[in-house]
Amino acid sequence: MIISKNPYTGEEIGRNKELTKKEVDEALQVAHERYGTWKKTSFKERADLLIKAAKELRNRKKEYAETISREMGKPITQSLSEVEKCAWVCEYYAENAEKQLAPETVETDAHKSYISYEPIGVVLAVMPWNFPFWQVFRFAAPALIAGNIGILKHASNVMISANNIQNIFERAGFPKGCFQNLPIGSDKVEEIIKDKRIRAVTLTGSMPAGSAVASVAGDQIKKSVLELGGSNALVVFENANLEEAAKTCVQARFQNTGQSCIAGKRLILQVNISEKFLDLFVKEVKELKAGDPMSEDTYIGVMAKEDLAEELEEQMNKSVKAGAKIIIGGKRKGTFFEPTVLTHVTPDMPVFSEETFGPVISVTTFKTEDEAIDLVNRSDFGLGVSIFTEDLKRAEELVPRFEDGAVFVNELVKSDPRLPFGGTKISGYGRELSVQGIREFVNKKTVYFNKY
């Protein structure tokens, strides 16, 4: 039995019977057979259905958002924004997919040659709990409109949301089997990847989970896309607008109660402005309202599970033992973790070298530009980096020196349907969103005509 619990109250809010092996097989067969007809539908038919899905998301936005907040503790205003963003990605691909996947003529010595972009089949998505709607929709919208079929293995603690997502596509009019949620445990994933009816897999989650999935997919010679953890740096230079940078950095670290792969987790400050900036930063942190995720003025909710809060606490305590200083926060009660700022952090401490998935931020200082870039690139992760400076020309010159998948200047790292999203190093490979994302799960077919 898969049980959903409210991490704020501890109460059980839902149960799902786990599918049997026979039921999983039946679901995969439905998906396989549906692909045979779905791939023949027109872009207009698919786009119309995505528009209807966007309307369904907006029509029941409050209901879906409340479920997100109850299942994983996200503040309700942020849950509402998440549902709205899912509607946006549906509309984006409804408007752009046909152009993004249009055949591309290539001039060769042939009578006619071009590249066509065609669907590949049933794609398995293994998704996490921290953005239970958005992570799924940014996969599903491009995959479905490209002509593929979606199979979802969602995190066990957000299974009500997972069922809601399947219902959204069905209410929008997508044919039975286009998108199915499978209430199963992680121990069933390997067998599903190995199934011949599955043609590819995408995972958003931890590095160990990504490694395991990629290993199985690689053994089966199947395409995989991995969006894994991150330890994004927030680099504040001496010529930054400190007041605005402080506000942005607080949002970058503490939205979704810090439970985001793209959160800014390492605050890297030029030493001569570090004291002034920290005063501004801490003042902003103190103003964050913590409490019931269902309250509209709550910004800091609870962590999704107590074991995750305990793990974060251990990372913090080990770092303090190694010399880090807590200047605000530092206390945990159950799933609630105070917004915490640690200074005097060095690269060998857990809060710098590991991913901290919760409301804790580390502070490290630098003197020179080269030292700042070294501190950013020293991480094993490579999802994104934010730099804050009013010298935009110099910022553009620095961009190639960062090894991450994204560089944001005077802004927090965020995903946008119009731009590719993904990382380097142990943050994964492949891209989601934009034209690059929709082309991950298609057959890029070379077509060549000669004329005698």
Would you give an account of this structure?
- The chain has 15 helices and 22 strands.
- The protein is an alpha/beta fold.
- It folds into two domains: 2-228 and 427-449, Aldehyde Dehydrogenase, Chain A, domain 1, CATH 3.40.605; 232-416, Aldehyde Dehydrogenase, Chain A, domain 2.
- The strands form six sheets. It has a seven-stranded mixed β-sheet with strand order 12-15-16-11-10-18-19, with helices on both faces. It has a six-stranded mixed β-sheet with strand order 7-6-5-8-9-21, sandwiched between helices.
- Helix 2 (43-59) runs antiparallel to helix 4 and helix 3 (61-72) packs across helix 4 (76-100).
- The chain starts with a strand and ends with a strand.
Give keywords.
single chain, 452 residues, alpha/beta, Aldehyde Dehydrogenase, Chain A, domain 1, Aldehyde Dehydrogenase, Chain A, domain 2, 2 domains, seven-stranded mixed β-sheet, six-stranded mixed β-sheet, 15 helices, globular
C-alpha-based Rg, rounded: 23 Å
Task: Note the gap between the termini.
Answer: 65 Å
Q: From the helix content, strand content and strand pairing, which structural class follows?
A: alpha/beta
Shape: globular
Give the SSE map.
Layout: E1 2-5, E2 12-16, H1 21-38, H2 43-59, H3 61-72, H4 76-100, E3 104-105, E4 112-119, E5 122-126, H5 134-145, E6 149-153, H6 159-172, E7 179-181, H7 189-194, E8 198-204, H8 207-219, E9 223-227, E10 232-236, H9 242-254, E11 264-270, H10 271-286, H11 306-321, E12 325-328, E13 332-333, E14 336-337, E15 340-343, H12 350-353, E16 360-366, H13 369-377, E17 381-382, E18 385-388, H14 392-398, E19 407-409, E20 424-425, E21 428-429, H15 434-438, E22 442-449
